[in-house]
Each structure stands twice: as structure tokens, then as C-alpha cells.
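Now read the record:
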Amino acid sequence: MRLSSREIQFPGRPSVKHARPVGIVFQNPDDQVFSPTVEEDVAFGPINMGLSQDEVEERIKTSLELVNLTGFEKRAPHHLSGGQKKLSVSLDLYSGETRPLIGFCKISFRL
């Protein structure tokens, strides 16, 4: 699969155009968490979209309320439980209004 601009290309198939940016969520949230606080991690998308500080703060608040993580703003993401980390990573995309979410799972085989 190759993703460029607004086209998704699969080998041997015609390209598909998508209307919205696509967000990626990795199986292991530790691979995607990079900010010192949950608040900064959730703010990453809206800040990079060029939104005003007031709009960024509103999106952080709304996003954290959505998944019951209000009060976790100043916590370090690596101190969250596994489930809380996954929610936090998903909020990075939600707060930036990036949809749909695409989850990648690592597949392992016993040989």
C-alpha cells in the first residue's frame, strides 16, 4: 500500500481517492506517545493544523472528556495504564479531526 497526497494505491489495483486525512494508530501505544504530558500529546494535531491557542485548549478538553481522561492532562503518558495510553493516542487523531482511524496490528506466527 502506498499513501500519497489524497490517493491510496494498492499494487495491481486502481488508486482510491480519499476525502479526509487518514490517521494511523499503532498496536503498541508506546511507539506513538512522544510528549512529556497527555495534554501536549493530545494538542499535537490541532497545533500542527495551525489552530488558535483557545481552539487547541477546547479540543484538548473536549477530547479528554470524551474518554473520561479529564484530570490526566499533566500526567506523563508513560505512567498511564495500557488502555489509557491507547485512548490517549486515539485522542491525538480525534482532537485533530483526522478520520477514519486505521489500526495496525502486529501479526505473529508460531513456527
